[in-house]
Amino acid sequence: MGIAVYTALLLCAATSVRAQEALDKERPLPDYFKACVRGRPDFDRCIMDSLNQCNHFFHTGVPEYNVPPFDPFFAKEVVQKRGGNSLFYKLTLRDVIESGWARSKVIRFKSDPRNYRIRYTQWWPDKFLAGQYEFDGNMIQLPIDNKGQFNLTLYNYTQTTTLTRRPVLDEGGRFLRWAPIKVQINVLNSGDMALHISHLLGGRVIMENILDRIINAAWRPGFFVLRTTINDLVETAFTKIFNDGFKGFDLERVLPPPESISNALS
């Protein structure tokens, strides 16, 4: 009898949790941020906690605010160029799919309204990227031309994102419009990495399999080399996400009024 009662209680608890999760997903966006009053000392902490309750929106977007879903995110093309005459390469990534956003967590958040900037650090248990690549380079007068497919998984991955959006003013200092959002990504670390690249040695499968094992066994130096590429890729993704999805986003519809206004109205 005791086991039956205990099992029934567990089922009731599980049903209650699922029902609450379903209700949470139906909450309007401003409801998550109703306690985050600008001007209060706990504002940044409140925003961070609220953002971490909104992960389901990565999959669905927020249609009433014209915010599209972006997990997974699709990038048609990302181009990276580096080097000079004797040491040069151009890496083009095409049809890139990036996923894992809904499993991420914001672990630090800092607003800087005076400079129209926010900076936050985000952690993922895993982040996955896959697509096509084209590599064209010149390494000490040796031309390299290669293309194929790649997939990259980053585990225990952390990055810091800085978003800046400044107002555009006329000659008299009057507001005209908001400039595009500027995005800066700084990859901090990754606990592990799995990278697989096809046609890395021109289709010599046995050698490519050996090199694949070497790359993934000695992944830490590889991650250091890849950081710049990851920064460029994620900056491109974020720039598109924020400028497309949040172009007409009205923060006043989501956040409660600043504390000074609230005090004046009370």
UniProtKB/TrEMBL annotation:
SMART domains referenced in this protein's UniProt entry, alphabetically: JHBP
Keyword Signal recorded: yes
Signal peptide extent: 1-19
CC per GO annotation: extracellular space
GO biological process: circadian rhythm
Keywords: Biological rhythms, Signal
Protein name (Swiss-Prot/TrEMBL): Uncharacterized protein LOC113215631
Keyword Transport annotated: no
Record-linked Pfam families: JHBP (PF06585)
Family affiliation: Belongs to the TO family.
Matches recorded under InterPro entries: Haemolymph_juvenile_hormone-bd (IPR010562), To_sf (IPR038606)
